[in-house]
Design brief:
Helix content is 47%, strand content 13%. It has 37 helices and 26 strands. The strands form 6 sheets. Strands 3, 21, 22, 23, 24, 25 and 26 form a 7-stranded mixed beta sheet that branches. It has a 7-stranded parallel beta sheet with strand order 14-15-13-16-17-12-20.
Length: 1012
């Protein structure tokens, strides 16, 4: 573990604080993550807490993974189920364990935003909308309503609260109706929204669904109405750490307070100056409320910055002070009447001015240009100059934009010059090329006279339509009053004068087209499977993978979009059992686009040596040597304040809202975040002409920084603000340099963690490993996997109930000596098991209804056999269920999940894995079959004191088990094998090893080496 001496005084105080509440105000680049991870590691290593007694809550899953990896590296050993994750993941766990206590179904079915949209659309008549259901576009406000409901849940404003408010408003409006008709209309609007919110919650309950906001709301309800359950979790989780506390919403903070209690060991880490997600700009609300709720809390302010040069920090600090008095530093030094009225703030001397640990001055430069083209050229020229003069990588540079559309010109210029780049955008799925390609093909299948979609298909290289012939299509179309479809059907007409290549390409395209028209007419086929089949037959998945010369980042991006497409389609099918057609899916996408939605995109990990382009929001938590903040003109940054489509009534908000301009302050905090990403160089750029009629004015933020343009458009820097910063004039007349695009050797970001499935796949075929785990190419699901997931999920819930109802909490400690207990009755009925199975049922990928019913019957029969066996011979004594692990082997992290850990009679444990396939016995169980459980034993022994008695596969089809014990020779052999495999993965060229296994491979239709 990293020695405590590596910490500065403030960091050490935070890490060594053990008992009671702690507030850490952590400025940008002050080593916040190091403090949190070392604090967790120290609690464990010093024996103060066991891993499962610590909860660390983060804002994103990515942050949680990073924190988990750092703790693992610090400990140098494995840990089982340390609770590091998002609030939603934590609450999902709580409700899956104890949701039955408040009558919730188990397991919880959590719906995505897309699924919620479809649910509301399919039941729109139930909502009795008038104001929010325009006749021309009845679905227009669905997204706005759902966002509103989500925001209400963030603020813990329940449907009954909203209805009471609406009723009060209606009563007031009745009294003034004759004098003020506007008041009456507003009251009706609010009542409509309140009733819609109530109806939405009723609909979710009827269907057995939760949205993400419900996870926290129901966990709060559980803790408040079941004191014994709250007491249990307070005992289980004795140390609570909350990261990014400034952005935590009201409901999340209420949850943390309940779990910690008044004198709990709770640590919160935040910085009000970096609050960019907090509702209505209430940046200091949480921290001030924490000081009120925990008046005796220790406070540590981290100001030693390990990222940026001092002049960059000074400029950033001077800028953010423009948000005074609505800043924590200001209010703690000199609280004003407004905040004193909201919460008692005690004056204390606090400075948030960051001090650089690194010496020297950073570059601070402003790039002023005449036109957008000049600005783009100058920025890219500067990046190239940095690479040459500073011996820097392209990956050391980041271009930060306020809105994603500002990135397009920079992307095009980087492409033109052959400079590698990554563009991280969270929106725009529906307008991405891959998404539009697939939609175009589906559109012509359902409407052959959709000429626009045909023309999009002609542009795709895989269809091999000659560019010179495309104009002939248009000519013939106009001359003969045909649609494109008629032109294609008459492609052999001599008068068309098409090239032979185009004729052959069109005939192949129409052959697939006719085949797929018939495929769509067949009944009983899984809709998503049809889509996979069609895309494979036209060669689209193969086209997505690209060729060996193509940059792998490009392939990763396309595959990521393809994955998102299938996820969207699958979510739609799941919510539309009766009408889950591809035509319905297309209509759904069109409806969302009409309502102003663009679709969300998952972030894609790419190679490091590329210029990073992203929004400022996406840059939060990152750092770069050189940062370019571009398009700094009004009204791009700061943007114009836009109200929410449906605003939360101020009377219902519980947070402390700022006194002054909420939007401008939030834009300043966002700009401050952008500035503090820079380590060595900070660049601001703007132009006068962005293509409109009017000349653009520089952003007011440049003036606040002391960087502006005078009336003669000559760039000026006020020295008192920037020190020795300098100005670089535009080189608008400099010739734009061009070079051949750089072809880089394909490179993938190898997984940071490995698993049994990865080892097994790589040993079968390295190319399959690349397709599955590196490129993550989507594949059709399989009904057998759906069935396996159902059985595992059902057994997980059943044994959680068994564990809970047998009151085995004393046995749950994985580090202590477990109590010996003879098998006994579980207190769970066969009807309970059936109910849990039905709730856990995964309905995807079955061939037809007959097969679906066959497997549902089979699953219930298997569970019934288990029930009668356990009732007769005694129920197992599980001490862990679905136990996750992560352990280090030669410095590499291996992860997995153990289905069940049972207490054995001899004080040892039994590790169990469920199998839904064909049963095996001791004779037919091969060496490779044993590896999975051997791996589990290595993980268990790396962290646990309780020895393993045996390893068992439980075959559910006939309720049989095969058990074996692992010798030291077995374990040492596996360690050696795993190390060898990991090294091979890291050095592999991922060549194919075709063979008999190709017949069962999900990639056989797109793999050029498959032997089928």
């Amino acid at each position: 573990m990293e020695h405590i001496s590596s910490l500065n005084d403030q960091q050490e105080q935070a890490v060594l604080h053990i008992t009671g509440p702690l507030l850490i105000v952590a400025g940008a680049g002050t080593g916040k993550t190091s403090v949190v991870t070392q604090k967790i590691a120290r609690l464990i290593q010093a024996g103060v807490a066991r891993p499962e007694q610590i909860v660390a809550l983060t804002f994103t899953e990515k942050a949680a993974r990073e924190m988990e990896d750092r703790v693992s590296a610090l400990l140098g050993q494995s840990f089982l189920e340390i609770s590091i994750g998002t609030f939603h993941a934590f609450c999902d766990r709580i409700l899956s364990e104890r949701g039955l206590d408040i009558g919730l179904p188990a397991p919880c079915t959590i719906i995505t935003d897309t699924e919620a949209w479809v649910l509301v659309r399919n039941n729109l008549d139930r909502f009795r909308l008038d104001y929010y259901r325009p006749r021309g576009n009845p679905f227009k406000f669905i997204s706005a309503l759902l966002k509103h409901f989500s925001r209400l849940k963030d603020e813990e404003i329940l449907p009954d609260d909203y209805l009471r408010y609406a009723e009060t408003l209606s009563a007031d409006s009745d009294a003034t109706m004759q004098s003020d008709n506007a008041v009456s209309t507003e009251a009706q609007r609010v009542m409509e929204v309140a009733r819609a919110y109530h109806e939405y919650q009723q609909l979710l309950l009827e269907k057995g669904y939760f949205d993400f906001g419900d996870l926290i709301i129901y966990t709060l309800h559980l803790f408040r109405t079941r004191p014994a359950v709250l007491a249990q979790y307070r005992e289980d989780f004795q140390y609570i750490i909350v990261d990014e506390f400034q952005d935590t919403n009201f409901a999340q903070y209420e949850l943390v307070k309940l779990l910690a209690g008044k004198e709990g060991n709770i640590t919160v880490v935040g910085d009000d100056d970096q609050a960019i997600y907090k509702f209505r700009g209430a940046s200091i609300s949480n921290i001030l409320n924490f000081k009120k709720d925990y008046p005796n809390a220790k406070e540590v302010v981290l100001t030693k910055n390990y990222r940026s040069k001092q002049n960059i920090l000074d400029l950033s600090y001077k800028f953010i002070q423009r948000n005074n008095p609505d800043r924590l530093e200001f209010q703690m030094n000199n609280p004003d009447a407004y905040y004193k009225e909201k919460v008692s703030v005690l004056a204390q001397k606090v400075s948030k001015r960051l001090e650089a640990d690194r010496t020297g001055e950073g570059i601070i430069e402003c790039i002023s240009a005449e036109t957008l083209r000049d600005e783009v050229s100058d920025v890219v020229n500067r990046i190239e100059k940095i690479q040459e003069e500073k011996n820097a990588l392209f990956g050391d540079c980041a271009i930060l934009v306020r809105a994603n559309d500002s990135a397009e010109s920079f992307i095009e210029e980087l492409k033109r010059r052959g400079i590698p780049y990554t563009f991280l955008a969270s929106k725009g799925l529906y307008f991405s090329p891959v998404f539009l390609d697939i939609l175009a093909y589906l559109r012509v299948l359902f409407n052959p006279y959709d000429d626009i979609s045909w023309y999009r298909l002609f542009e795709l290289p895989l269809f091999r339509v000659q560019f010179s012939d495309v104009s002939r299509f248009s000519y013939l179309k106009d001359k003969r009053a045909w649609g494109v479809y008629e032109v294609l059907r008459n492609i052999r007409d001599p008068r068309s004068r098409m090239s032979e290549k185009t004729i052959l390409a069109v005939e192949k395209l129409l052959g697939n087209f006719d085949k797929h028209i018939q495929l769509l007419k067949q009944r009983g086929l899984n809709t998503t499977k049809r889509l996979y089949a069609m895309l494979d037959e036209i060669g689209y998945r193969q086209y997505i993978i690209g060729n060996a010369d193509e940059a792998e980042d490009t392939v990763l991006e396309r595959v990521g979009i393809l994955n998102s497409f299938f996820e969207q389609a699958q979510q739609f099918m799941r919510m539309n059992h009766s009408s889950s057609t591809l035509q319905g899916f297309i209509n759904h996408i069109d409806d969302e686009i009409s309502a102003g939605e663009s679709g969300s995109v998952d972030s894609i990990e790419k190679s490091e040596d590329a210029v990073h382009i992203m929004s400022v929001h996406a840059a939060k938590g990152l750092e770069f040597a050189y940062v370019f903040i571009v398009s700094l003109v009004a009204p791009r940054f700061p943007t114009i304040a836009r109200k929410e489509a449906i605003e939360v009534p101020t009377e219902l908000i519980k947070d402390i809202l700022p006194e002054h301009d909420v939007h401008l302050q939030e834009e300043r905090r966002l700009f401050y975040v952008a500035m503090t990403r820079a380590k060595d160089g900070l660049f601001f750029s703007f132009a006068k002409d962005y293509g409109g009629k009017r000349e653009r004015k520089p952003s007011r933020f440049l003036e606040e920084l002391g960087i502006c343009a005078d009336s003669d458009s000559k760039a000026v820097i006020r020295q008192e603000a920037v020190g020795d910063a300098f100005m670089r004039p535009s080189s608008s007349h400099e010739a734009m340099r061009s070079r051949e695009p750089v072809r880089r050797m394909p490179h993938s970001s190898l997984p940071q963690k490995f698993s049994h499935a990865q080892f097994q796949t790589f040993q079968t075929c390295p190319l399959k490993y690349k397709y599955q785990f590196l490129l993550k190419i989507p594949t059709p699901g399989k009904y057998i996997f759906s069935f396996g997931t159902t059985m595992h999920s059902a057994l997980q819930q059943i044994f959680k109930l068994v564990k809970q109802q047998k009151n085995t909490s004393a046995q749950s400690s994985l580090f202590g000596n477990a109590e010996k207990e003879q098998p006994a009755k579980a207190g769970i009925s066969l009807e309970d098991m059936r109910r849990i199975f039905n709730a856990a049922w995964v309905d995807d990928w079955y061939k037809d209804e007959t097969q679906r019913l066959e497997f549902k019957k089979k699953g219930l029969e298997w569970l019934e056999a288990l029930y009668h066996d356990y009732e007769k011979n005694g129920w197992p004594a599980p001490i862990a269920i679905e136990k996750g692990f992560s352990f280090l082997l030669d410095g590499e992290t291996i992860t997995g999940r153990i289905d069940r850990v049972d207490q054995s009679y001899d004080g040892k444990v039994e590790l169990i894995d469920y199998k839904t396939g064909s049963p095996k016995d001791a004779k037919t169980l091969k060496k490779e079959d044993r590896q999975q459980l051997l791996l589990y034993q290595l993980a268990w022994e790396a962290a646990q004191k309780t020895p393993v008695a045996r390893l068992s596969y439980h075959y559910l089809s006939n309720n049989s088990a095969v058990s074996f014990e692992a010798s030291e020779v077995d374990k040492q052999g596996l360690r050696k094998s795993l190390s060898t495999t990991i090294k091979a993965i890291k050095q592999s060229a991922f060549e194919a090893t075709p063979g008999y296994h190709c017949n069962q491979c999900d990639f056989r239709k797109i793999c050029p080496f498959a032997k089928v």
